[in-house]
Amino acid sequence: MSYGDMALVYDRLMEDAPYDQWVDFTKRRISEHPKTIHTILDVGCGTGEITHRLHQNGFSMTGVDLSSDMLTIAQQKNPRSSINWLHQNMTELDIVEPFDCVISYCDVFNYLDEEAKVKQAFERIAASLKPGGLFLFDVHSLDHIQNDLIGATFAEVRDDISYVWFCDPGEEENSIVHDLTFFVERDALYQRFDEVHHQRGYPVNDLKNWLKASGFTLEGPYADFIDTVQADGDRLFFVCQKQE
Q: Are residues 158 and 57 in the same domain?
């Protein structure tokens, strides 16, 4: 899943995404962390909305994504920025200098549709962190996947862009196949393109066990940007620290 043509319209479709809430949640967790955090690696950074915001807050940022198209758009938003952009797969992260903090938001981990890939990503992120470093990420809760996403249909019609989005059940338990069709106006004509994305949810206890096996201590999950540890919500946040 590399987002292909969707990169061209992604920011339009995500105009109402709560990017500032992700940034504020990150800053609150950093303020509570016992170690100073200056360098942050944003895994699955997409078009860089969160990356740019945290950079504006004074952090030294690096964004990594599987989609070169997304990274091109991210870099074009501020070509003179000192942000580093890396084209890598999160399951094969190859980082030279370890970071103080790694973040991965907007259900990036749900795009890893095999348990082995999740475990491998945790291991590579641990290797990309300094001892005692902070790791923050979110996932869709299983309740949200089962009750709100699987079987749902979303659609929107604008003057220059329209889409229909079907969320079909996947072959694996708690998995979703996102079948998307877009119509985008270009040169007074509408061009159609289709994309298929796969996501999968994982039980909280499984995620905790895999994190611990990768050398993390953790708290959470938090839910829906609220500073209370609870597992009842649509989006679950994990706050992890690499063991020293």
A: no
Kind plus residue range of the DSSP H or E element containing 49: helix 49-56
CA angle, residues 127, 230, 29, in degrees to nearest 5: 45
Enumerate the β-bridge partners of residue 27. Answer: none
Query: Which residue range forms the structural domain that includes residue 190?
Result: 144-200
CATH number at residue 154: 2.20.25.110
d(CA 219, CA 1): 30
Q: Which residues contact 87 (CB under 8 A, 6 or more apart)?
A: 64, 65, 66, 68, 71
pLDDT digits (tens, 9 = 90+) for 26-78: 999 999 999 999 999 999 999 999 999 999 999 999 999 999 999 999 999 99
| Model confidence, pTM | 0.93
Count of CB atoms situated within 10 Å of the CB of 36: 7
Residue 100, domain CATH: 3.40.50.150
Give the torsion through C-alpha atoms of 162, 225, 19, 239, to 10 deg: -120
Whether 54 and 171 share a structural domain: no
